[in-house]
Structure formats: structure tokens, C-alpha cells
Amino acid sequence: MLRKLSVLMVLAVMLIVVTACERRDLEVYDTGTARLHIYTDWETDYGEVPSEMTLLVYGSDNKLLHSIENQEDPTHTVVDLKAGEYKLLIFNGNSDIDAFPSLKFENLSDYEKAAARAKMITTRALKNWDQGTQYMCDPLEPFGCAVDTILITQEMLEQNYTFVNYRDRDKLEKNYTDISYYETVEPMRTKIEVRVYIKKGFKYLRSMEGNLSGMADGFYLSRVDRTQETGTLLFDRWSIESISGEIDKGWVKTTLDTWGLPFGKEMAINREAADNVLNLAFLLNGKDTRGNNTFTYSYPVGKIMKYLTPTGDAMTKWEALKHIEVEITIDGDWAPELPDVTPDESTSGAGFDAYVADWEDGGTISLGGF
Asked: 117 pairs with which residues across the strands?
């Protein structure tokens, strides 16, 4: 009898266990997805619609979540996102290492550290006057970017909750809420014009070069700020402006796109004169009594760089980062006086010749580098 009871108890326990292990279908649901439409205005500030653009989407931890390249319509890009906070970074072109001849990207996987920096010039032959100075590339191509932080709340997606059984989870149809954002791309270049008045020896000038130190070597994309690290720019494309009736004095000038002034140095009040040094080298069409035909001049110009805008240096820092031109003028007591030289017959026809017909009537001519 006892044995029969034991068997019955075992069967009862097994029945309880089997019953307890029965699984009921669990419900799963989709909380909704934002179909984000990014409409990008390239023309207002940047100036033109590029052939390609890149959208980078970062999470609240600043880590990269999505990288989308758009060649079909750079004015409209779509990305699907769940509720949360996101950071957007938009720029023209793509992030490939060779996408831009003059810049390279760094740390694009981290929003706070993402940067674009100038590549270095590697093809320049050594020159005596600048002692092998290393130059960064100037922006050879347009570059612009836009940044934004967006918040997609669950309330924006609440009406699209969808429930299904767990066993049917693969058949779950996602629901999308269309949300639009509008971004304006800003150009990331600063144009610098350098004008130099030569008050003596203009007639001996054959060609010239120059450089400018203390300029930003790129910018931090997420902050739309220039870098604090600096480099040196090469000026090797100059033009001559003569003064009517004069042959021994005149102006030389050059214009160059740059990465701008470094972060914290945008305004003149925050710059020291020596923060930016302009070096000029003049190659003359003859030699002086010591046998020299190349003459260099150096100017600390950090305090005399002026913005060519209606508000001048009274502009805000943000205005100083947009649509600006900076002018450096060397004249007055700083104006170089080039030495007298004995013209070299072998240089006839090379470089600038101040004795060309009607030159004294005034005019402009290109002046090459060394």
C-alpha cells in the first residue's frame, strides 16, 4: 500500500511540474520609430548645392550611430531613429581620407572630438629664404558644415504603438512618424587679403613669396570652432598694382582662403602682435653690392589684421566665423624699401618687368613665385 502511495505522489508532483512549465504567448510591441527628414539649405550661406553630402548621427554619449552618404539629393536625407537625444553633423563630400585634397578628418566616431585638419604641402621644393618651413594646405575646395542636437520624445511616437504575440515577433510591422528638421550649412573658410606698399625699389621686383604663421590648422566640426593648434600658410601667388606716373613704387597683393584664426584669437583684443607673423621675400632682377638678389622682411601682424565687414572688429565672435574677409596692410613706416641692384641681363623676360610699355600708366599684373 505504501508503495502505491509513493507512486501516486510522484505522479502528482510530475503533473504539477508539467503544468507549471506551460508557457503562454508573451506580447511584444513596437514603440514607434521617427522617420527623420533632414532638409539641408546649402545655398543661403554656403553658396551652392554640392554633388555629395554626409550625415553623421551620434547618440547622447557622443558615439557615432549612423553614417549616411547622400549623392542623390544632398538637400534631403532620411534616417530612422527611436526616441532619444541625438546629435547631427552634416558636411559636403564624404569622409574618405582622399575625399579632399587639402584636408583630412579625425575622430569622426566621437562627436566632441570630430575635426577636420589641413594636410601638409609635400611637393614644394626647398627655398633658401624660408629655411624649409613646413606649410599646411590652404582650403583648395569649398567646405561647410552644420550641427544640431535634436530630441525625439516618446510622446511624439506614442500613437504608433503596435502589439503582437512573441511567436509572431518576426512579423511585427514597424510604424513610422515623419519628423522634419531644417539645417543651414555654414562655410568653413576665411579669406585673407594681404596688401603691401613698396615705397622704393618697385622697378627691380622680379617675383615674390611670403608666409603667415599662427593660423588655425582646421576646425572642430561639432563646435564650429577653429582649432587652437596653428600652422603656417604659404603665399606664392601675388599680383602687382602700379601707381600711375610711378615706376619705383607700387602695391603688391595676394588673396588666400584659409582655415581662419585659431579658437580664442578671433578678435583683435585677444591677440598679441607676435601671434601672427608675416614674412615677405622679394626676388629682384639683379644683385646688390654684396651679390644678393633675395631680400626678406618680417612683420608681427597679430594686432593689425582687420575684418572687412561693415561692423569691423565690433562684430560678435559668431559673426567673426562667418562670411568674413581679413585684411593685412603693410604701408607707412612698415613699407619695405628694396635696395638698388644692378640688373641682370640673364633675367630679361623672367618675372615682372616694371619697364614694360605704358606700365607707368598704372595697371595690374600677376606676379609668380620664385
From this structure: 104, 218
